[in-house]
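Q: Got a minute? One more chain.
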Amino acid sequence: MLRTLLLLVLLCIIAASAPSARAAGLLLPGEEGFSDSDHFSDNLWGLHTQLEEKYGLYFEIVYRQDTFWNTRGGNSTKSPPDRPRMAGLYLELDTAGAGLWENGTFFLGLEYITGKNPSDSRVGDWQWMSWISTDRRRAQVSEFWYRHSFLEDSFWIKLGKMEANTEFNAIDYSLDFIHSSAALNPTIPIPSYPDQDWGLVAGIEPSEHFAVNAGIYQGDLNGSRSIGNTLGNLRGPMLIVEPSFRYEINGLPGKVNIGTWWNGRAFDAYHRNRPNRTTYGSSYGFYGFIQQLLWKENPADAECAQGVGIYGQYGWVPKNRSEIDDFIGGGMTWQGAIRGRDDDVMGLGAFCVYFSDSAGFDDRAETAVELFYKAWLTGWLSVQPDVQFISNPGGVGNQNAIVVGGRVEFVF
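A: Always. Here it is, folded:
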């Protein structure tokens, strides 16, 4: 419904403006420059660019839809395919650009998520094969926060309802994968999509080689769909600290991050020797990741993004208070693998969770392998074919699954 309404509005704007398009500066399909911008709205009299330059207001409307068929194994291979989808409106106001004060940023995110989750209905995997999937239809205020920086951004604070994965376990080379464990380590109970929640985060970067982020969040894993009821459901808290170490090898940048967390909410107990205990009053764990650019197409060009990057990550949590006790994942991405397709990204990744031996699973581990190619048809429209192989989906004795499909992404 939201997608249909958005398309109708865009078509009406184009139709109404077509007679005077050339005079007004409106670009139409087929004209030079129509597909070059990063946002479709730049074709509407440069709307996106003008708002940012004149008023310090940056906005995006993003629509993503996944379509997946389970061709083998899992819970079911019956058609039709599952189509999880989400639409998001994101507004960011630079206070200096708006004529207010320096070094401040306000952010508001609104999201609508719907469609069947293929992990629930078809595959049965413990790790979700599509990160935009959710357990129910949602229309929510996903983020609402303010960030202020000091000393030329060497120190900053951020307060509000936010996506914690932006500041913690944020891996650049994982962003184009569709699988949920590519970007978010499943051993870390931080308030992340689709359960963003309230928190206070601070970061310090005393040098270009070292930085530390520390945060305190509401610790309820279910998050909140709005603003008001979040404050009435504060639990935890969730405390997390993550140092970051940056380096270069032959001019190619790399980064190592090591983090630890503690969450004071109640966690289900998994313990064979103490069956009378149903919960623990807290949990804790640690994690880390490394990412490295291996090859750059044009090393002399600082703006060149074509190249090959890799990453690996690990997470640990006590097996007596979690269904999993270890996670290992990693991947490789290659931007510009095909000549003349400098913005396209190809990726291969593998993600493995090890189940707690006290949680009653039939199998020891579940592993997902993903291969994709993300093709940018324009600067604001991409199509991403995707194949995933999932061994021991759900750890309950299901046959290995092979899932094919992909994602379409439109940026207004």
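A: The chain has one domain: 42-411.
Q: Perfect, thanks.
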